[in-house]
Amino acid sequence: EELTVIRKFEHIEHCLRRNVQAHVSNGFEDVHFVHTSLPEIDKDEVDLSVEFLGRRFDYPIFIAGMTGGTKGSQLAGRINKTLAKAAQELNIPMGVGSQRAMIRKPETWESYYVRDVAPDVFLVGNLGAPQFSETIPERYGIEEALKAVETIQADALAIHMNPLQESVQPEGDTQYRGVLNALAELKAEFPYPIIAKETGAGVSMEVAVRLESIGIDAIDVGGLGGTSWSGVEYYRAKDEMGRDLALRFWDWGIKTAISVAEVRYATDLPIIATGGMRDGITMAKALAMGATFAGVALPLLRPAVKGDVDGVIRILRRYIEEIRNAMFLVGARDVGELRKVPLVITGFTREWLEGRIGLSTYLRRR
Ligand code: FNR
Fold first, then answer.
1. How far is the CA of 199 from the centre of ligand 1 (A)?
2. Which atom of ligand 1 is nearest to the CA of 276?
3. For 45-71, how does the pLDDT look when each residue is reduced to its tens digit (9 = 90+)?
């Protein structure tokens, strides 16, 4: 019982103290805008707002879920409330971390609760896909899903798919049999939107098509190139065998840029491009490739731990101004126009996509 709680605390510590990022890029260095010397718009008129699940947001940035339920609930509560204040101020959506601890220990609910400081924020709850597996006798169902959303007055539920992380940790939940079926049953009854999210290894088009077929509302690709959960588990490993396994899989997965292209090509689902998004030019590229949001986790952790709302907002405003500038320089008045500007795709990303999708078809209809 205590394990989940302590584990989350250790994760945050390692994320703050060590380099837990992938050793490879998220692929966006292979995606190029074509500079426009005559943008034919004023920079001031660039509109960064986006629509998502029936709501309008001022900026195309999503604060990805990180925490909740840690020891004494103090740390997690501070992180979530700090992120929520920033999200409220900027009118952007945010997620909380896995609510498994809350399902087990309902008294930790306050560490996920942010409505007191962020009454209007679009808030996304979070549960793990393996908990819905048919292999687990006490598997989650609609009851736990409703509890996750309603206890914290969230607007939607994220289901995280994290087989990589689970597979390289000693106490990992590697039961994934029957998850798709369980999510299909949940989706049929559940009154809130469901976002399927990866946590750093990316979503393939095959998985995206299956998720769309059962009615999942959006996909957060959580691609390779940012925080590596195998990296985090490497530092937590208890023995050499565990360390070796985690190290071997440190850079496993589908890069964020590639995952965005695959999911956009194969489905009509709204996309959140998370995984190594660290500047506004990269974010603008993700939007041009068909994402509705760029998602960010790790860079916001440090100011959030300190309760530094201004620090979180400062980082986000830098991204926003960089996105705005990139949009100006390609003559895109809004995110819709940004999706129509020419993109050049080179290198590894091009090779991958040429092998997997109709690249020119994708580029035309993204
Ligand atoms: C995460 N992430 C995460 N995701 C999830 O669905 N449930 C969770 O509980 C957590 N916990 C968590 C803790 C910390 C400290 C970090 C940094 C991240 C994953 C997160 O939402 C995101 O998908 C990845 O971190 C990739 O984004 P970045 O970090 O590269 O911007």
1. 6
2. 30
3. 999 999 999 999 999 999 999 999 876
